[in-house]
Design brief:
- With 97 residues, the chain is an all-alpha fold.
- It has one domain.
- 77% of the residues lie in helices and 0% in strands.
- It has five helices and no strands.
- The longest helix is centred in the C-terminal third of the chain and has 18 residues.
- The chain is globular and about 35 Å long.
- The mean pLDDT is 84.
Length: 97
């Protein structure tokens, strides 16, 4: 069964795409505080947070999040799925520097 992101994360991503970065960041941070999150939930939250840091020009934080996401991907054996997205985040950082 394919992974379906929780509504909170879908909403956070919508906020991010609409330029409401602080609201999106708050939504993701509140989501991360919930108990019983799956690895997939955690990974989705991390990746949205990573993009938010890129958009906020906080590159060190974006890289830290990318490293955490990569470690989680290794743990749940999703490395091949995560590599293109992590490459995109890194490319975006270099374009903006």
């Amino acid at each position: 069964m394919p992974y379906s992101r929780p509504d909170e994360l879908v909403r956070a991503e919508e906020l991010m795409h609409n330029g409401k970065l602080e609201e999106a960041f708050e939504k993701v941070s509140n989501f991360e505080k919930k108990s019983g999150l799956t690895h997939e939930d955690q990974l989705s939250a991390l990746l949205i947070k990573g993009w938010l840091y890129v958009y906020k020009l906080q590159y060190k934080e974006a890289v830290d999040i990318g490293e955490r996401a990569y470690e989680l991907c290794k743990e749940i054996e999703l490395i091949s799925e995560s590599s293109p997205l992590l490459d995109s985040i890194i490319s975006e950082i270099f374009v903006r520097i």
